[in-house]
Amino acid sequence: MSYIWPLDPRDLFTERYPQMLGFGLPTQDVDATRATIKDMWPNAPAGWVHEWSQLAARYAVEGRHDLAALAYGWAKFPTLTDEPKRTALARQAEQYELASAGFPVDFERRVLNVPYKGGTARVTIHILAAPGLPADAPVTLASGGVDSWKMDLHPLWVPLALQSRTRIVAFDLAGTGETSHLPMTHDGGTEIIEGLIAEARRLGNGKVAHLGISMGGYYSARTGLSGAVDASVVLGGPVEASFAPARGFAFGMEGTVGNALGFDRPPNPEEQSDAFARFNLRPLLDQDAHTPMLVINGTDDVHVPQHDTLVFRGRRDTRVELVPGTGHCAISKLPEVLPVMVGWLGQTLNT
Questions:
Q1: What pLDDT is recorded for position 105?
Q2: pLDDT in tens, 104-119
Q3: Are residues 135 and 37 in the same domain?
Q4: pTM above the 0.85 mark?
Q5: Residue 99 has pLDDT above 70, yes or no
Q6: Fewer Cβ atoms within 10 A, N terminus or C terminus of the chain?
Q7: Which CATH number goes with the domain that contains 14?
Q8: Strand order of the sheet with strand 167-170?
């Protein structure tokens, strides 16, 4: 189930341009694509998926499979609303696997069947590890949010794997990426992650950290607050104020979230409020069962209120960093944030 909604591609470039460049796409190619794209949804010249796919195909022919995977990632952005978007995701996976031979880390793509609503659900994971990493190293589960998925965030997973000395298990949240066949719900999405935690404990020495970015940070906050993992890193995660009634969205995020939640049409305000109210983590915030947590965001986040970061201040075994001069998930200052995460993980997991 999916739907389209009014979305101006100029807004997406305004917000995501630093991410496009920061993760490795050449400036001249991004600028040329930005100048060409006029419409979001038509699969035709000047359309978003068409132009990004054209760029990706050019990279593939040139043997630049790493750049092709990044460009196909933007082609399917921000959600899988139609067949061209799903095709772009499939091609991204193909190019990503072709690029993996040149990764500076060991890489494995694996399909798991994890418990889900009385049965099982198929979840594809990517395992990245520094060459020679001992088999008994801790594991870090890692995911992005509703529109940046495990392959899109590869430029972050690689240095994290190399520097943290943990085995990275990257996955897509329910309702997103290669797990889009399941709706994102507070309970079902959590059950999927609980299955991944159990699998991760068998992969290493039994210690598991959970790093979540954006909506992924909601789930890492949840596993950290509930004590389901040994350490939790929350990067730009919504936890409470983000789910308040009548909360608005910026840069077309309402449609991305609505699709992830499983709606086949734009939800009305009552449906949206009802769906979001179930995600509120206040009941867990009121408890004291949490494991060590690192909570980070930028001061200028347009998606997640500062409250959802600052609410963690004063809690035991919790470090809170609100980074000035950057926005959602402190993306423009990741070179500064990454060492903080690596150092904290090393100290907390004794790596």
A1: 98
A2: 999 999 999 999 999 9
A3: no
A4: yes
A5: yes
A6: N
A7: 1.20.1440.110
A8: 106-116, 119-129, 167-170, 139-143, 208-213, 231-235, 293-298, 318-323
Q: Among candidates 43, 56, 123, which has minimal Cα distance to 83? A: 43
For residues 319-332, average pLDDT: 95
**Tokens 């959970």, located at residue:** 210
Q: What local confidence, expressed as pLDDT, does residue 342 receive?
A: 97
Do 150 and 92 touch, CB atoms closer than 8 A? Answer: no
The b-or-e profile of 20-47 (16+ CB within 10 A means b, else e) is: bebbebeeebbeebbebbebbbebeeeb
Domain boundary among 45, 68, 100: 100
Is 243:221 a contact under the CB 8 Å cutoff? no
Give the type of residue at 276: F
- For the chain, what is the domain count? 2
Taking residues 6-32, report their average pLDDT: 95
In angstroms, what CA-CA distances link 329 with 68, 88, 216?
25, 25, 11
SS3 call for 111:
strand
Q: Which of 225, 208, 211, 217 is nearest to 289 (CA)?
A: 225
Range of the domain at 57: 9-100
Three-class DSSP category at 103: coil
Q: Is 234 found in the same domain as 110?
A: yes
> Which pLDDT belongs to residue 201?
97
Q: In the prediction, which pLDDT does 1 show?
A: 64
